[in-house]
Amino acid sequence: MTETTTHPAGGRAEETAPAMRPMLHYTAKNTWLNDPNGLVWHRGVYHLFYQNNPFDNVWGNMSWGHATSTDLLHWTEHPVAIACDEEEDVFSGSIVVDHGNTSGFGTAEDPALVAIYTSAFKEGSAHQGTQAQSLAFSTDAGMTWSKYAGNPVLARGSAHFRDPKVFRYEGPAGSCWIMVAVEAQHQQVVLYRSADLKGWEYLSTFGPANASGGEWECPDLFPLPVDGDPDNVKWVLVVNINPGAVAGGSGGQYFVGDFDGVQFTADPDSLAPTDADGNVDLSRCLWLDWGRDYYAAVSFSNAPENRRIMIGWMNNWDYANSLPTSPWRSSMSLARDVELATVDGLPRLVQRPVLTLDSGEPATIQNMELHNSLLQLPDATPGSAQLIDAEILPGTARTITFTLLRAPDGSTATVLTFDALTSRLTLDRRNSGNTAFHDKFASAESAPVKLDGGVLRLRVIIDQCSVEVFAQDGRVVLSDLVFPRSGNLGTDVCVEGGTAMVRKLAVTSLS
């Protein structure tokens, strides 16, 4: 790309399916993207780097694309930041602000941004057939990058050693840089330490554990206070897996535990039990998202106010290259604020979408009783996203069903159902519109949802070709892509099997 474009989540470039491009979710103008990487906040700006094919809208020629934002919703796309070359593809990694100028790439007064990325070495390279960790640096706040002449800085002679997430550690083990990376096909997270980002010392290994039926990728490790208490801090280790996620294909799991500067130790209640054959019940693992389309999720470095903000790739490797969009393909999820809260006596992640938008007045319903009836809600607005906030007491009802992006004749729709008998929330896209482009796309995903005092709370964001559902204030999340037919804008809620009380229901158009 040779020009910079400014747009909410991707712009309005000429394309064959204009209605599909989301408003609030970042897309590249006319190319492919996958894993977010190098997420960093610097000088008041959020930088989103990502795996990008600069020349096509399918996977290949892996380089780092680049976009910036001040609010995590409206993004400016920039030229490719770190490009592949004849020696290497540039795979995932992270960026740190080198405040102490430990690397020597900047100065104490004007620290460099340092990218730690995976070099996937090509045939003909001296390191061909291996993956190793390399550096690039920027001294102009992330706008241009130079690869370090001494690359790679960390190699294991492995073909699947990748995805370094680096952060500054200050604790009992001293002050240093910590890297968490993966040996993907061994389902292991490997940890290293460094004083200067150039020389690395091995520390420890974690895994396999919990979901380990596919390759482990894109790890992240960070501390969070439990319930906001600074005297009760736990560490969260995120490990993405493909295939082998709870909904099939790609997904992200996490562990809660402790990190002493050398070793991460998972709490016993973070580890799922195994059967007599050593198999893990995936439903007992801790998942970032129970849907099909939230993968490679990692968090921002240096985020202000000690916020932990994550973004994932809104796609699944089962069908990623076949999505029916053009010229762009793939989007990022909404940014999510992530916290640890006590849930049923245990520290667990809660995730809330970042939605700092001026919006229209919501259409609001309060204290309405519904008995075996259907309530029509405002249609989605073409060219806008739709936000639904609901607080419902299911009462004697068996099911509460939201029909989203419904065709005028009712023939197709995306369906979100809470079943009070099984206490499960299901997002069903099997009849959502265009599902025929890949035989693995049509699906229904479900997750266990425990009511709070008999109340079901939902926050649902529908954005052209995606649905993200945050249940019970973000304790459970379901995210799926959908590709509705043109004109599919209808929305309603239906109560069946008894009487439910709609304590509050607000529908808002976002643009």
Task: Give the key terms.
50% strand, mainly beta, 511 residues, 6-stranded antiparallel β-sheet, 34 strands
Could you please describe the fold and organization of this structure?
By secondary structure, the chain is an all-beta fold. Helices cover 0% and strands 50% of the residues. The strands form seven sheets. It has a six-stranded antiparallel sheet with strand order 23-34-25-30-31-32, with no helix packed on it. It has a six-stranded antiparallel sheet with strand order 24-33-26-27-28-29, with no helix packed on it. A five-stranded antiparallel sheet has the order 1-5-4-3-2, with no helix packed on it.
Percent of residues in beta strands: over 45%
Q: How many helices?
A: 0
Fraction of residues in helices? Answer: under 10%
Counting DSSP E segments of at least 2 residues, the number of strands comes to 34
Largest sheet: 6 strands, antiparallel
**Spatial order of the strands forming the largest sheet:** 23-34-25-30-31-32
Class by helix and strand content?
A: mainly beta
Instruction: Return the average pLDDT rounded to an integer.
Output: 94
Could you name the ranges where pLDDT drops below 50 across 5 or more consecutive residues?
1-17
The geometry reads as: globular
Cα end-to-end separation = 26 Å
What does the radius of gyration come to? Answer: 23 Å
List the helices and strands and how they pair.
Blueprint: E1 5-8, E2 32-42, E3 45-53, E4 63-69, E5 74-82, E6 88-97, E7 113-121, E8 131-138, E9 146-147, E10 161-171, E11 174-183, E12 188-194, E13 201-206, E14 215-226, E15 229-242, E16 251-259, E17 264-266, E18 295-299, E19 309-314, E20 331-332, E21 336-343, E22 346-353, E23 363-371, E24 374-377, E25 385-393, E26 399-406, E27 414-419, E28 424-428, E29 444-448, E30 456-462, E31 466-471, E32 476-481, E33 490-496, E34 499-510
Antiparallel strand pairs: 1-5, 2-3, 3-4, 4-5, 6-7, 7-8, 8-9, 10-11, 11-12, 12-13, 14-15, 15-16, 16-17, 18-19, 19-20, 19-21, 21-22, 23-34, 24-33, 25-30, 25-34, 26-27, 26-33, 27-28, 28-29, 30-31, 31-32
